[in-house]
Specification:
The complex is a heterotrimer.
Chain A (H helix, E strand, L loop, with lengths): L1 H26 L3 H22 L5 E2 L9 E2 L3 H31 L4 H7 L9
Parallel strand pairs in A: 1-2
Chain B lengths: L18 H23 L8 H18 L2 H7 L2 H24 L15 H32 L5
Helix pairs in contact in B: 1-2, 2-3, 2-5, 4-5
Chain C lengths: L1 H18 L3 H21 L3 H25 L20 H18 L18 H12 L4 H9 L1 H22 L13
The chains are: A mainly alpha, B mainly alpha, C mainly alpha.
């Protein structure tokens, strides 16, 4: 039983982090808080993947003469791409939020929905 | 809207308030850029590569913008140059792939480039695409920062 | 031991970030969260990923969020306003129930996973040994991650570069005002 917990508690903490980010996305009304929650969710998923690649007794995946075992390099490659995609998504989301603020005057989701489509700044 | 922490009247030139920040930025920016180039160039020998080095290079220009004004940074790196640089990196990457087709192999098969034996040609091909990726990432970070941090009335 | 402490510190940081009403403080705490995440990845021997997260997550994301905050509002609306149109407090209990159910399903799914650090896990036996054994001979590059990223999976890296270029174009399209490329005043 103790061995079972010692082998799996990492995954449970990662799932906890994912759920904290998920709660911020769906329960908070502020749009920037939703983007922050999305960032927490994404980094927790990356942590889950990287923990799959760890091998007991392995070193970093760079050729070294005294190494016996190496860590698995394939999840590192996938997560490198995913980190860059996550920052691109955050940049476009924040640009959208700045435009929403310019048009509606607020970034709280409930106030925007209550306005019903009438913009403050109807220039375009 | 002003960037938080800056004086509202920095459209003029307030001397004396920002001396420390500006002097330290002037001292540090060449070293940060040198480190960015080092990280891009040594991507094969250790941790690093195109993305990390490109982000460090972009961060050095962002530091310059934060220490001095945004118009001063625009004078040094105009909008046309940063737009051109962000396309150039992707074109270098795709261009190396097309060169591999012209040399007789598949797309992005570096072993067929006529630069010596297969391992050396592969090494040089990887080096070329890391440079392309670094240029694009640096230019896109600078562009995104300039667009989001601009003042409303500018 | 230190790994467990770092993970618990991450959980505490995440809870603080989500609950804070002052968004500037929340963004600074997100920077600290990214930095601790980079340290955790270094402890797991993922050095390339830690480098990228420290520069991109703790650097660029923090800077972008502060720039966005400077163009919008700094504080979040509180839940006990007297405005009856705001119904954000009605969402919190169903959201919490949904989050707990999703978390329980995910934890039930991890029961069958291989133990942490197992060298005979299926993820470590499929194609990774081929990369580890043959990449130095075939590409001449010492770093396995760069060899896989730039040579074996070069198409994915081309797609990634295109994604970041597209993000730059999208931000320019959304936010740039079309009054001349060099900032001339518009002719209204």
């Amino acid at each position: 039983m103790l061995e079972f917990i010692a082998g799996k508690y990492n995954y449970w903490i990662h799932v906890t982090l994912m759920m904290i980010g998920f709660y911020a996305i769906i329960a908070k009304g502020n749009l920037i808080k939703k983007v922050i929650g999305m960032n927490i969710f994404q980094t927790a998923v990356f942590l889950f993947y990287i923990s799959i690649s760890k091998v007991k007794g392995g070193t970093a995946p760079i050729v070294w003469d005294e190494a016996v075992l190496y860590n698995n390099p394939l999840p590192h490659v996938l997560i490198l791409t995913a980190i860059v995609v996550s920052v691109s998504t955050t940049a476009v989301a924040l640009a959208l939020i700045i435009r929403i603020y310019r048009e509606y005057g607020t970034i709280e989701e409930d106030e925007i929905l209550a306005m019903g489509g009438e913009r403050i700044n109807a220039q375009r | 809207m002003t960037v938080p922490g800056r004086d509202r009247t920095t459209r003029g030139h307030i001397v004396g308030e920002h001396v420390i920040g500006r002097t330290v930025a002037k001292l540090l920016i060449p070293f940060i850029q040198l480190y960015g180039f080092y990280v891009i160039a040594h991507g094969e020998l250790g941790p690093g590569g195109g993305f990390q080095g490109g982000v460090i290079l972009g961060a050095s220009i962002i530091l310059y913008t934060l220490a001095f004004d945004i118009e001063a940074a625009r004078k040094r790196l105009s909008q046309k140059v940063s737009d051109l640089l962000s396309s150039t990196g992707v074109l270098i990457y795709g261009g190396i792939g097309l060169l591999c087709i012209a040399a007789g192999g598949a797309y992005l098969e570096y072993g067929k480039l006529p630069l010596g034996d297969a391992a050396f040609a592969s090494h040089l091909g990887i080096y070329g695409i890391e440079i392309g990726v670094g240029i694009t990432v640096a230019a896109v970070m600078i562009t995104i920062f300039f667009e989001t941090a601009r003042r409303e009335d500018a | 031991m230190i790994d467990l402490l770092l993970l618990l510190f991450l959980v505490v940081c995440a809870v603080v970030v989500v609950q804070m009403k002052d968004l500037l403080s929340a963004v600074i705490m997100l920077g600290a969260y990214s930095l601790i995440m980079a340290v955790v990845w270094t402890r797991l021997n993922a050095v390339d990923v830690a480098f990228t997260e420290a520069s991109v997550g703790a650097g660029i994301t923090t800077m972008l969020l502060i720039a966005a905050l400077s163009r919008t509002k700094r504080g979040e609306a509180s839940n006990n306003t007297s405005d009856k149109r705001l119904k954000s407090s009605r969402h919190q209990v169903p959201a919490l129930i949904l989050v707990l159910i999703t978390g329980a399903v995910l934890i039930y799914g991890t029961i069958d996973m291989p133990n942490f650090g197992d060298p005979n896990a299926p993820a470590n036996l499929h194609v990774a040994p081929r990369y580890i054994e043959k990449s130095y001979k075939e590409t001449g590059v010492v770093n396995f991650v760069t060899a896989v990223l730039a040579s074996y999976r070069g198409y994915d890296t081309l797609g990634e570069t295109t994604v970041i270029f597209t993000a730059g174009i999208c931000v320019v399209l959304l936010l740039r005002k079309n009054d001349g490329a060099s900032g001339r005043k518009s002719q209204r």
